[in-house]
Automatic annotation (TrEMBL):
InterPro entries: Ig-like_fold, MSP_dom, PapD-like_sf, VAP. It is a single-pass type IV membrane protein. Residues 189-221 are annotated as: Disordered. This is Vesicle-associated membrane protein-associated protein B. GO terms for cellular component: endoplasmic reticulum membrane; plasma membrane. Its main location: endoplasmic reticulum. It comes from Merluccius polli (Benguela hake). It holds the Pfam family Motile_Sperm. Endoplasmic reticulum (ER)-anchored protein that mediates the formation of contact sites between the ER and endosomes via interaction with FFAT motif-containing proteins such as STARD3 or WDR44. Interacts with STARD3 in a FFAT motif phosphorylation dependent manner. Via interaction with WDR44 participates in neosynthesized protein export. Participates in the endoplasmic reticulum unfolded protein response (UPR) by inducing ERN1/IRE1 activity. Involved in cellular calcium homeostasis regulation.
Length: 250
């Protein structure tokens, strides 16, 4: 007895096409539609089970509904001179009204209740023009996803909101820089005054006893060393803040 005609509608109906390159998993979609008023059980089988991953590979399609089956071809070394001999078969049967166990239904199914459709597989590599177009599209998508960079290599702000938020921080840092510059200038003047006072003391050293002269020189040296240390620390801090302001301004 001949098998009944397939009730499921397959898209594509006869051939699954896989488009390279095949250095990664390539997926083709098979749509199974059920135009009947009965639920339909289905199974998807292949002649090369180690080369493909099928999800879902079985199930039940409700009346008037459809299912998308993902057929994933595993990576392999593509040979354009080798024709694909891989094939798929979609097997189906009308689900019993009182069905509770899908696997049990398949085991108890009679051959005349089973319907099947066969599909062949085709592999194709993109043309050179297509490769160029895909490469350009990929570069454009990457460029749009990454922040644009200026001539100095600093990334531009991602949005006007973040730029507006940075303006307040920049203003605070600029005010702090001005205050530090004034402090540095004051310390320089104070240091210069100490050096001038030290020169006057040295000119009077002949009239001052030796122990007192040594004490005065040690005291002035300590003051000058303390001021120099503070001046150096402020200069370093000013440099660091300047670098931060430069990055924010860009």
């Amino acid at each position: 007895m001949a098998r009944p005609e397939q009730v499921l509608v397959l898209e594509p109906p006869h051939e699954l096409r896989f488009r390279g390159p095949f250095t990664d998993v390539v997926t083709a979609t098979l749509k199974l539609g059920n135009p009947t008023d009965r639920n339909v059980c289905f199974k998807v089988k292949t002649t090369a089970p180690r080369r493909y991953c099928v999800r879902p590979n079985s199930g039940v399609i409700d009346a008037g509904d459809s299912v998308n089956v993902s057929v994933m071809l595993q990576p392999f070394d593509y040979d354009p001179n080798e024709k694909s001999k891989h094939k798929f078969m979609v097997q189906s049967m009308l689900a019993p009204y009182d069905m509770t166990d899908t696997e049990g239904v398949w085991k108890e199914a009679k051959p005349e209740e089973l319907m099947d459709s066969k599909l062949r597989c085709a592999f194709e590599m993109p043309l050179e023009n297509d490769k160029t177009h895909e490469s350009e599209s990929h570069q454009l998508s990457v460029s749009s996803a990454c922040p644009v960079k200026t001539e100095h290599g600093a990334a531009l702000p991602k949005s006007a909101t973040s730029a507006a938020l940075d303006d307040g921080e920049v203003k605070k840092i600029m005010e702090e820089c001005k205050r530090l510059q004034m402090e540095v200038q004051r310390l320089r003047e104070e240091n210069q005054q100490i050096r001038e006072d030290d020169g006057l003391r040295k000119r009077k050293v002949t009239s001052v006893p030796a122990p007192q002269s040594s004490s005065s020189m040690a005291t002035s040296g300590m003051r000058e060393e303390g001021l120099s240390t503070r001046l150096l620390a402020l200069c370093v801090l000013l440099f660091v803040i300047g670098v931060i302001v430069g990055k924010l301004a860009l």
